[in-house]
Amino acid sequence: MPLGKGELTTTATSLHILELIVDHGWVTLRGLVEETGLAKSTVHKHLSTLRANDYIVKEGERYTLGLYFLTVGKRAVEFRESYQLVEQKVRELGSRTDAEVDFTVEENGRLILMFEAAGATNESTFGTGTEFFLHNTAAGKAILATYADSKRDEILDTQGLPATTNKTIQSREALHAELEQVRENGYALNDGECVEGYRTVSSVIKRPNGSALGAISAGGPAYRIDQSRLKNELADHVRSATAEVTESLVEAQSTL
C-alpha cells in the first residue's frame, strides 16, 4: 500500500482496512492480519478506532460496515443543493419516457450513480452508489468529452480501458474519435459496451462556470430500446432535460 505525498501512515492504514471491508463485505481480525501483513495488535487498534467512530460494527468475530455510512452518504448529497433539482428532473423524465433514467457524476476517475427512476412499467437495472468506468458508458463519455486533454489522459492513465464486453472501446484513438462525435452531437451513446444488451444515451449538465456537474442518461435493455428510439426520442429528451437543469443552475446563481 504505497503512500502518496503528504499522506499519514496511520490514516492510510485505517482507510485501507476500511476498503478491504467494503470489498469483502465482512472480515475477521485474523483475516485482516493475513491480508495486510500487519501485527495483530496494530490491526486490532485500527478496528477499535473505526468501531468507536461508528464506521464499522462487530458481529461475533466478523467486522462489517456500519449503517452510519447511510447518514454520511445522505449528507454528501444534501450539501449539494443542485442535486435536488436534478433528482426531480430524473423522476420526471423516467415517468415521461418509461425508460430507465439516471444521474451520474464523475469522482476520482470513476462514474457514480446518484439517482435513478424507471417509469411505471420498468425496473432499474442498477442501484444508487453503483460505480462504473467512464470509457464504456454513455454518461462517462459525455463527461469525458467536456474535459481538457490533460484531465482526460490522467483518468485514463489511472483507470485504463478495461473491457467489460466485447464491444468495449479498447484504444485511446477510438475513444478520442468518439468523444469528438459526442461534442458534435451534444450527447453520447452506449450500445452494449458496459453491459451486454443494454443501451443508453446521455447528455451533460453544466455548472454556471461551464464545468460538468454530471450527466443524465436514459435507456434500457435492447429488447425494449431500439436504436431509432435511442438516437431520436431519448436523445432529444436527455438533451432537453440537461439544458433545462443547466439553465436553472445559472438562474439560481444569478439571484444570489
TrEMBL record:
The keyword Transcription regulation applies. Keywords: DNA-binding, Plasmid, Transcription, Transcription regulation. Residues 68-251 form the IclR-ED domain. This is Transcriptional regulator. The keyword Methyltransferase does not apply. Gene3D superfamilies: 3.30.450.40, Winged helix-like DNA-binding domain superfamily/Winged helix DNA-binding domain. It comes from Halogeometricum borinquense (strain ATCC 700274 / DSM 11551 / JCM 10706 / KCTC 4070 / PR3). GO terms for biological process: negative regulation of DNA-templated transcription. Residues 8-67 form the HTH iclR-type domain. It holds the Pfam family HTH_IclR. InterPro entries: ArsR-like_HTH (IPR011991), GAF-like_dom_sf (IPR029016), HTH_MetabolicPath_Reg (IPR050707), Tscrpt_reg_IclR_C (IPR014757), Tscrpt_reg_IclR_N (IPR005471), WH-like_DNA-bd_sf (IPR036388), WH_DNA-bd_sf (IPR036390). One of its GO terms (molecular function) is DNA binding.
